[in-house]
């Protein structure tokens, strides 16, 4: 075969350090647009970026030349720098260590898109912790809950 052709669909989920409610509505969409720009700038396909005050969901079409970990590192580093430059939060903004990365088939794109689009509605019924544990269970990912995130309850 003369070329390599693929599209890998990944949903990233990551939280604000300490799971603090720092992503405020007046500027949250600007952060999501900035993250989409980072993804595009890295030669990847941003499908949707959305979230709530304490965490973000990023759905991308990933080319195999880019590693999952390299893209999330770039997203988190560059977006936290952007937020800090805007002085939107008191003190220094940062993301928590770690992230979730979940893969999907092409046939699931619309469902994942709608799920991410409706995060505000979704989180009226379910906490981030419940949502994240559901992802880990659904994808059969072994984990020890004490190592997931710095939970502040």
UniProtKB/TrEMBL annotation:
<feature type="domain" description="Transposase IS200-like">
    <location>
        <begin position="5"/>
        <end position="119"/>
    </location>
</feature>
<dbReference type="InterPro" id="IPR036515">
    <property type="entry name" value="Transposase_17_sf"/>
</dbReference>
<dbReference type="Pfam" id="PF01797">
    <property type="entry name" value="Y1_Tnp"/>
</dbReference>
<dbReference type="InterPro" id="IPR002686">
    <property type="entry name" value="Transposase_17"/>
</dbReference>
<protein>
    <submittedName>
        <fullName>REP element-mobilizing transposase RayT</fullName>
    </submittedName>
</protein>
């Amino acid at each position: 075969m003369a070329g390599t052709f693929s599209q890998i669909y990944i949903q990233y989920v990551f939280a604000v350090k300490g799971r603090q409610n720092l992503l405020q509505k007046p500027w949250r969409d600007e952060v999501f647009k900035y993250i989409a720009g980072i993804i595009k700038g890295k030669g990847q396909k941003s499908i949707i970026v959305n979230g709530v005050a304490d965490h973000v969901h990023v759905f991308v079409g990933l080319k195999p030349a880019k590693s999952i970990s390299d893209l999330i590192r770039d997203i988190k580093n560059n977006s936290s720098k952007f937020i800090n430059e805007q002085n939107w939060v008191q003190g220094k903004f940062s993301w928590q260590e770690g992230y979730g990365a979940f893969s999907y088939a092409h046939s699931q794109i619309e469902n994942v898109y709608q799920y991410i689009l409706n995060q505000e509605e979704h989180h009226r019924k379910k906490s981030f912790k419940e949502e994240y544990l559901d992802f880990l269970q659904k994808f059969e990912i072994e984990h020890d809950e004490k190592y997931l995130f710095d939970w502040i309850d």
